[in-house]
Write a structure and sequence with these properties.
Elements lengths: L6 E4 L3 E4 L6 E6 L10 H8 L5 E5 L18 H13 L6 E7 L1 H13 L3 E5 L8 H5 L10 H9 L7 E7 L3 H9 L6 E6 L6 H9 L1
Helix pairs in contact: 3-5
Length: 209
């Protein structure tokens, strides 16, 4: 559990840090390891975002937030409704950005598109499909399709407001292929780095975050 001052709402899967003097909100979608390719507090400090309004999300189902934030599975629409209401509670902060890592990057893009946020920063967008055990349990994402195909279909119909920044390592083959499939779509900018691992944050290093 993170120890964040000024936190007014905190559960295992949802932590909110409020700053009434800041008009920006950043929502973080953690990946399958429930991190941000580094310890979340370190990420906030390294990026200079610590004093913004922050919402930190954890997916208890490891299913790209398709089943919401509760231990009892719900659906993505209910998750969007919950997120929308949390953002409305931060009505002093009307400049909204989503940040996601790995499988959380997929959810950040999908949710960011749906809610029409200003920008989405996707680090190491995961293209790995859910495994057979997940599918057998009903955790099948969007009908088991490849995540990049899902997102391409979504973003082909631009919402005219959201910008998407995809950061990935060239040597991470699946991440590179996923990002390239979204190249040229309205609002999409690719940031390719010369690393080999899925952990693009490590390649960026503190100085470039």
């Amino acid at each position: 559990q993170l120890n964040l001052p000024k936190t007014y709402s905190s559960t295992e899967n949802l932590i909110i840090k409020r700053n009434e003097e800041c008009r920006q909100s950043f929502v973080f979608f953690r990946g399958d390891n429930h991190g941000l390719f580094m310890e979340p507090l370190s990420f906030f400090v390294a990026t200079g975002l610590y004093n913004r309004n922050l919402i930190l999300l954890k997916d208890p189902h490891n299913a790209r937030f398709n089943f919401g934030l509760e231990e009892i599975p719900n659906d993505f629409d209910s998750f969007i409704d919950r997120l929308y209401n949390e953002l409305r509670a931060l009505r002093h902060a009307n400049e909204i950005y989503f940040v996601g890592t790995s499988s959380g990057a997929y959810a950040a893009i999908r949710a960011g598109y749906t809610l029409g946020v200003k920008g989405v920063y996707a680090f190491g967008l995961s293209s790995v499909s859910l495994n057979a055990d997940d599918v057998a349990q009903g955790i099948s994402g969007d009908k088991g399709q490849n995540p990049s195909s899902d997102l391409r279909c979504l973003l082909l119909n631009s919402n005219q407001s959201t910008k998407y920044f995809l950061c990935y390592n060239q040597g991470a083959r699946h991440d590179s292929i996923t990002a390239e499939e979204l190249r040229g779509l309205d609002g999409v900018t690719l940031c390719s780095l010369p690393g080999d691992s899925h952990n693009v944050i490590k390649t960026l290093g503190d100085e470039q975050l």
